[in-house]
Specification:
346 residues, alpha/beta, six-stranded parallel β-sheet, four-stranded antiparallel β-sheet, binds zinc ion
């Protein structure tokens, strides 16, 4: 995501990030460029990366494009996938005013369903108008799934949701872990989950992503209104989904589709996502009988916490192979391996 410090809003910064990753990342990578109100020239130059991210509503960081004319300009010039954080800024500002008190349980009311629906609707209209590929990030509402289902036949729109939106729900999560359950768009009431799962199963939602945002415990310990939104998710995503297979809610083939095949296809990633002759050997070996409890102390992220701390899951990755090299095997990392920047077909 581009809302880092500094934010990734120029090709130069994108190159810097790729350069950093080439030195540090154990896995393969690509980064979004972030849209701003005045970086059209940079957006035009986008070439070999996963795409552009637009924050239609303000979230963590200072990236925000809430002006309709500028949004239209961005859609007209961008030739990569346009990925949107779909929350309507005006609706957020209105909702914020009506929320009183400092309880984290207010978070879904401060960033209501209408904000998400309004922004998703606007983004879909722009994608159709300019015939552009649109990807809706971290989908969180039943209403958006219904709306997107009606527009699937355009062939222009894909979407993703996260394990936390599928498995955690309001108000329980805020009562249990407060700010550590706070992200944007919010973890919402349970009724949304049924439709998110249905959307995944019928192909309205294409893949599982994590919106990995590893804010530190110190940052998260601030009161409501000051604590940043966002939670880590990369390390726990696969076991959480495999646990749903163990619970017989979904099939193993679904997980492969949502976490390997579909992401590779929707971003046009070269030689990845499938076990095929000539494809890169990026393989995760899982043990469907392994049971383990997710714990803060086992998190590799510098943030050192997870919203799923204490949850026992059945089905775990045991070996990870990147470009033919074993980078993780039975709890041991091989820190000598480096991933590569992934490539895209146009
Ligand atoms: Zn976002």
């Amino acid at each position: 995501m581009p809302n880092t410090n500094p934010s990734t809003t120029t090709i130069e910064r994108l190159n810097d990030k790729n350069n950093d990753a080439s030195k540090k990342s154990l896995v393969n990578y690509s980064f979004f460029l972030g849209a701003t109100k005045d970086n059209l020239d940079e957006i035009k130059k986008l070439n070999n990366n996963c795409g552009l991210k637009i924050f239609m509503g303000s979230s963590t960081g200072d990236l925000l494009v809430d002006d309709d004319d500028i949004l239209a300009d961005i859609f007209s010039v961008c030739n990569k996938i346009i990925a949107v954080h779909a929350e309507d800024e005006k609706t957020l500002k209105e909702a914020e005013k009506s929320v009183t008190g400092d309880s984290f349980t207010n978070h879904p009311d401060a960033r209501p369903v209408e904000a998400a629906v309004k922004a998703t609707t606007k983004a879909v209209e722009l994608a159709i108008k300019f015939n552009k590929r649109l990807h809706i990030l971290h989908l969180s509402t039943a209403e958006e799934v219904e709306f997107l289902r009606k527009h699937k036949s355009t062939g222009l729109i894909t979407a993703e949701t996260t394990p936390q939106h599928l498995l955690l729900y309001s108000p329980d999560i805020y009562n249990e872990i407060g700010s550590f359950g706070q992200m944007n768009p919010p973890i919402r009431e349970k009724y949304h989950q049924k439709e998110l799962w249905a959307g995944l199963k019928d192909g309205t939602i294409n893949c599982i992503a994590t919106d990995h945002a590893p804010h530190t415990i110190e940052e998260k310990n601030k009161p409501y209104g000051q604590a940043p939104s966002g939670m880590p998710g990369v390390q726990t995503s696969l076991t959480l989904m495999l646990n749903e297979v163990s619970n017989e809610a979904i099939n193993l083939e679904d997980v492969v589709k949502w976490m390997c095949e579909n992401p590779a296809e929707l971003y046009n990633i070269k030689n990845k996502g499938f076990l095929r002759t000539g494809y890169d050997a990026d393989i995760t070996i899982v043990d469907m009988n392994k049971e383990n409890t997710i714990m803060n102390k086992d998190m590799y992220s510098k943030c050192g916490w997870t919203a799923f701390d204490g949850k026992t899951t059945k089905g775990w990755p045991i070996t990870t192979i990147v470009n033919g090299n074993i980078v993780y095997d039975n709890n041991k990392l091989n820190l000598d391996i480096r991933g590569k920047e992934v490539e895209f077909s146009s």
